[in-house]
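Notes to self after the call with IL:
- keep both proteins in one doc
- input above output, always
- annotate only the second one for now

Protein 1:
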Amino acid sequence: VLLLYLPFLAPLDEMFQGTGQYYARWSHNGSLFELWFEITQWVRQVMGWEQDTLDELAKRVIRVPILLGGLLVLARAWWKRVPPADALLWFFVFWLAFTPTLHPWYLGLVLPFLAIRPNPGLLVFCFTVLFSYHVLPPYLLAERAGDPEPPWEELLGWKLLEYAPFYLGVYQLLKAPAARRDPGEPTTGAQHG
């Protein structure tokens, strides 16, 4: 079996090159990440910094507060003794809000937790996230017409329709009574008080 892996082995610096390119440059259908990125671009313009250098740096640097925020969500849940299922739901919702790329299948991480703590806004978002594909028809038409750089343009109206249920779901989560876990209660998160 190990012999079958030999063709795919590469020097370590080349092995994750594609992942590094994706991490540094690609974003699509993000929400708060895009807002955060635009703020860094505004700071760049105000300060007169060079575009190319700062674009790549900004995409890397703005991930640090997002990572710290996600860890804070988990730490707060542990401190407040939130049931694990609720803590993970909050963590994944935070991650969905700040990820630079939100593919529809990412919501598969949230769906199991919605079975435990139903949330109409997040359930509807599982459908409206498909609106992110509004970029494909113009892109494919331009590509078929021979455009060397077809447009990949996200339109604000579609994004608002897509994300309105998500933020309604976040609002519903914030309004929901906080479940707390008693020290003797099982940690499945299935029972809420």
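Protein 2 (the one to annotate):
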Amino acid sequence: EGMFEAGIVAGASITQINLKGPFAYLSKMEYGSSINPSLGIFYDLKFVRTKGWRLANELLFTSFDVKGDGFFEDFPDYSASSSFSYSYLKTYHALHVGLLAQGKFYAAAGLTAGVVIDEDVEVKLMYETGTTSYRNFQSKKFEFGYLAGLGFRGGSWNAEFRFEQTNGIANSLSVGSTTLRGYFLIRYRILAP
């Protein structure tokens, strides 16, 4: 058995965004979740004599499209509608630690980094006076976070449930943000010299 494995990874993600700060039309909104496909490649370095321990590396395309709405009592009262659509190319680096059945079950923990390759953002305020205004939203171009997961390995396949939390989408000192993702991924080994 070789010291490394490479192959393809595919699955789905569910994404939730959180925004905090003094702007109610961002922080007090009710945002939905987004379910999207994810696809990429992996390259794992295996540790010998460890019952399944390895350093797992992935290059993954992932995206989300989240919308939110809210009504706010102010002077004048207004309703707000926001949409946040982002696509990322991300790297995942995790330690897989074998747990049971000669390492077929494993736990994963590690770090993530991503770059935005496409974005479409709209923040719209509609006042009861009949006027509409649009607010500027400054987006991060890079995303960093951590991951934890559980998986099962069998033959050339393995399946993994993964949770990820990142530093979010807002690039502003006055707006805090986090992005939460859950993944279900299938990895298929193509190369194992």
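Annotation: The mean pLDDT is 92. Residues 24-27 form the longest helix (4 residues).
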